[in-house]
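TEACHING EXERCISE
Course module: macromolecular assemblies
Task: Read the component lines below, then compare them to the predicted structure of the full complex.
Student: A.B.
Group: 4
Components provided:
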Amino acid sequence: MKVALNKTRNSFRLDGREIPFEPGQTIMDAALAAGAYIPHLCHNPQFAPHGSCRVCVVGVNARQVSACTAPASEGLDVDSSSAEIQETRKAILQMLFVEGNHVCPACEKSGACQLQAVAYYTGMLAPHFTHFFPRREVDASHPDYVIDFNRCILCELCVRASRDHDGKRVFAISGRGLGSHLVIDSPSGRLGDSTFAATDKAAHVCPVGAILPKHKGYEVPIGERLYDREPISEVGDVAAHEEA
Amino acid sequence: MSTPSIDQAAGFVADSLARRGRDPELLLQHLIAVQRCFSFVPEEAVAALADALGVTRTQIRAAVDFYAFLHERPRGGFDILVSDNITDRMLGNQRLLRLLCERLGVEPGVSRADGRVTVDLTSCTGMCDQGPAALVNGQALTRLDPGRIDHVADLVEEDTPLERWPGEYFRVEDNIRRAGLLLSEAETDGTSLRSLLAKGADAALAEVERSGLRGRGGAGFTTALKWKFCREAQGGERYVVCNADEGEPGTFKDRVLLTSYTDLVVEGMTLCAGIIGARKGFIYLRGEYAYLVPHLESVLARRRADSLLGETILGHDGFDFDIDIHLGAGAYICGEESALIESLEGKRGVTRKRPPFPVTSGFLGRPTVVNNVETFLAAARVVERGGYWFRGEGTDQSAGSKILSVSGDCARPGIYEYPFGTPVRRVLEDCGAQRVQAVQVSGAAGATLSAAELDRVLAFEDLPTAGSFMVFDQGRDMLDMVRNFAHFFVHESCGFCTPCRVGGALLRDLVEKVAAGQASAYDLEEMRGIGAVMKKSSYCGLGATAPNHVLHTLDKFPDIYGRRLRSAAYTPSFDLDAALSEARALTGREDAGAHLEADA
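Instructor-supplied answer key:
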C-alpha cells in the first residue's frame, strides 16, 4: 500500500537532529531506528508500546509525552535533553528507586541493569525521596529461575512476553495504586508451580534484576559488565544482549 | 444477615452464567454478583469463572484485588462503608464512624469475629447534599446522625434484614434547587427520536453541532465531533456508552438525572445510536448507585414496550438499539473513559494508551462513543428543540447550561442549573453560603478558589467543571481538605504509571508530615516539585490533576502550611529518637542515656 508519491522523506527533529520516520512509527521507533537514544525502561521494540514507566518523556509543543507512545509526525520539534526534561526523568527514576528495594551493590544485575544504567545516564546520584521500604518476597521455587519482587518496577515486560510471545500468561499485575504488584499464575502463586520455563521469552526481558537465572552468579565480574564498559546510550537495552 | 455456604459457590456461578452470559467481558458483573451473595469472592467461584470464561484465575484475582468493593476474604454479613469525602467529614462522619465501631465492637476494616459486620470507610458515595452518608451491603444510607447510628447498631445486632430497616434511612432526595434549560422539564415522549427519523441522521447531527454542546464530564470535547468521528470510523459493530461512574468527590448530579430524568438520558443514548449506527449500548453505573438498578431497568423495560428502545424502534426497520447496565465496583479511575472501557470488558480499570481513541477503537476494539449522563440528556433536548435553543444560553465557547452539585458549608445544598458564564459568587448567594473561605470547583481534581476569586465564571474558558462545587467557610481548616484529597488520590490511583502511583504517595506522606508539625520549608518545595512532575508526566488525567489541590493551596492558602512548619529549613522525615523505641523496649531502658538529645 505504501507508495512513494514524492521523494521528500518524513522527518522530525530530536534535540536538533533530523530523524526520518515511516508513517505509523512512534517517536521512539524512529529514534531507535536512527540510532538516537531516548532513555526508557518499559519499552522494548519487540512488544507493543506500553507507556507506563514515563522515563521516555520528551517535550513536544510545550507538553510532555512518552516517546514510546507518541506518534511521530512531520516537523515535530522533540526535546529530550533540556534541563526540564532531564529533571522530570530523574524524578521519575528516583520514584522507582524509593518504591522498591534496590540495593545495587548486592544485586547480581548490577552493571547490566537498565534502571541503574538509565539513572547514571540521567545524572541521578541519589534516590532523593523518602524510601518506602516495602516488605516483598523472593520466590526461589523454580529450578532454573528466581524472582526477587523487591526489584520489580512494574514494566510488565514479562507479562507481555509471556502473554504475547510465549502464549502462557504466567504473569499479571494485581492490586492497584502503590499496592500494584506482579503475580504469578499458578495454583500456589509460586513460579515453581507455573508453566514458566527458562526458554520462555519472559525469562529474558526483565530490564532489572527481578527475574534472574539460578546456578550462576558473578560470572562476569563487576566492572566488566555491559554498562560498565559502555553507556546505555551506546549499547541499548540489556534484553537485546541476552541469549534467549 | 447470614451468607450462604461456599459449597454453593460453583452452583451460584453456574446460575449467574446462565442468566448473564458467558462472554469474558461479563467477568466483573459475575464477580459483583458473587461478592453480593457470599460477602467475598471464594476460590471456588474464581475456579468456576476461570473455566467458563476462558480467563486465568490470576486475572480474576487481580480484578478482585483492584476493585474496592470486591474482597478475597469474607466481609461481615452487614458490610457498612462510611462515605469519607471531605463534605462527609465536615458533617462529622469521623465521629459517627467511631461511634458505630464502639457500639459494634469492631475496628475499621476488620470483620467482627462472629462474621456479623464489617465497618470501613469508602470514597465519596455521591450523597454530599444529604450526608453524612454510608453504604450498607451496597444500599445508600443518608443523613446519618448519632441517633440513627445507634439504631443501625441495634439492627445489626438483631440481625434485622435490610428490608425491615426503616425506609426513611434509605431515602435519597433529589434536592433540585434551581432548574434551567435542562432541569425545568423531565418528560419526553420520544420527540427527538421522531425528529431523527423524520429528518435523518445528518440533520440530527447538524443540530447537535449547531448547539455547540461539549462533553459534560469535564474535558469538554465537542459532542457532535465525537459522534461524527465514531460514525465515520471503520469497523462494523459500534457502541454507545453512558458514563455514569460519577466518582468525582462532591458530585451527585448524575444520580439525580438517572433518578428523575432517566427517559431523557436513555433517549439521548438512543439518539446517538441512531446517528452513529450502534445497536448496543451500556450504562456504566458506579457501584455506589447500585440501588438505582431496578429503577433503570423498569424505565428501559417501559421504553421497550413503547417502541422507544429495542428492535425496530418507532416502527423503523433497521433502527435496533438496546442497553445493558454494567456496574462498577469502587474505582474512581473508571470514570476516565478508557479505564471505563477496560472495566466494561471485565478487566482491571487501567487507562489505555491513546491514540487510538475510543471513537475508533473502544469497547472490544470497536468504535465507541462514551459520554457523560448530562451530555446525553442535553443532546436529546437539543435535537428536540434545536441547536439554537441550547446555544441561546452560555458563552461563545461554553454553550448552554451546566448542572452543579453544591455541597459543603451552605444553607441549601443540592442541584443547581446555571447558564455557563455564571460567576461563582452567584452560586454562593443562591445556596446560602456565608463567610466563604474557599470553593473547590470540579471536585478533588479541580480548582481551589480563594475568597478573592469569586467573580471567576463557570465556563470551559475560565473554570471548567464537571459539576462538583464544594463550599468551605472561614471556620474550616483547609489542610483537612488537602489531607482528605491526598489520601483519596493514593487510594484511587490505578498504579499503572510511575508519577501517579509513587508521586501521589510521596505527596500524601509530605502532607501528613505537615499535619504532624514535622515539616519544613524544604518539604513544601518538595511538594511543589513532585506535584509538577505528576502534572507534566502522568499517563492520564487522574495523575495530572491529582496534585492540583496541593499546588493551589500552597499558592492561595500558604498559612495552612506555614503555621505548622517545625523549622524553617529542613527537618528529617523520621525521628531518630523514636526509631530507638524498639531497642529501648527490648533492653528495658528508659533512662536519659537511652535517649538521643532533643533536636539540636
